[in-house]
Amino acid sequence: EFDLTAPFQPEFTTKDQVANRHKIRPILVPSANGDRFRLNENGLRSVLGHSAIQNRKVVIISVAGAFRKGKSFLLNFFLEYLYALQKSQQNETPLDWLGDDAQVHGFHWRSGAKRDTVGIWMWGEPIMIESPSGENLAVVLLDTQGAFDNQSTYQQCTTIFALSTIVSSLQIYNVVDAIQEDALQNLSLFVEYGRLATQHARQFGTPFQSLCFCVRDFKAPEEFAFGEEGGSQYMDHTPPGQAAELRATRDQLAACFDRLFCYLLPHPGHRVAERNSFKGHIKDLRPVFREEMRKMVVSLLSPEALRPKIVNGKPATCKRMMQYFKEYAATFDS
Ligand code: GDP
Ligand code: MG
Hints:
By secondary structure, the chain is an alpha/beta fold. Helix content is 36%, strand content 21%. The protein has helices spanning 41-48, 71-91, 151-167, 181-197, 228-236, 243-256, 270-273, 287-301, 318-332, and strands spanning 26-33, 36-39, 58-66, 118-123, 127-130, 136-146, 170-176, 208-216, 257-264, 310-311, 314-315. The site of magnesium ion has 5 residues, from helix 2 and strand 6.
């Protein structure tokens, strides 16, 4: 087993997070292996359990999808932005990120088979961001990964993906090239799972908050522009031949989330996609990718965009979130 415990953080403080960032690692919170589903309570506590933040509202952002589709790479842009944002808020300096010399890092990416665990990796600390109203929000990032390639992993993935949908305020479903029908079917299955698990909370409206499709290597920008607006048009159009079924799945998803939207991203360039030596250097990205990535990250994570996780109609604190995670993990552990 690996990375099941958090790196030692004697005193979590909401200051100096940027300076100490290099000490932080992702932690495998729940994992599934064969029939076993395991919640790493110590790991969870090491992220959310600090007394300094127990009453802070928590924002939980998950990126979910199959292996080798650039999820961790995407999350590393989120880290880059959030730490830069925090620094600019604390020092009252202009926000400066993704410069020519920047290098994204943090979540394991392009790593060996051992990392291909079905489970949820949580960034080892919440990143504290000030909201426009002056509240300090704890922003937690999740890397939810699985493979829908055979019967046994299918069940595990459904469970893991349902759990990450339940606990997050923003679930980003990462796909390559297009929103394929099978991806939609997988998604609607775990959304249904999550919906059933949270049924008692139905009096509080839609079960989940935001769902964002992120389409990587989108190949038809002349038809649908990169970014969010093209994404909406892309989501609303119906490819010939699959009208009825696709519509039904989409409607089902729309009924479960407060907000459903989509981003189309360009191909990052051959240095990212093909070279084993790629180390996350921003200067190696295609300029159009860098620009679209920048816009997407800002519109998802700026202080104005961050939404605390709502549990039973109320914003959840870090302390509440820890219990909530455990409650639902227990529901699935059978
Ligand atoms: P994950 O398994 O989904 O977390 O994928 P990773 O983030 O580890 O990325 C897997 C591989 O895809 C790495 O070699 C990346 O350099 C590459 N990659 C990352 N983002 C993209 C993308 O948007 N398009 C393409 N074609 N490759 C990407
Ligand atoms: Mg990954």
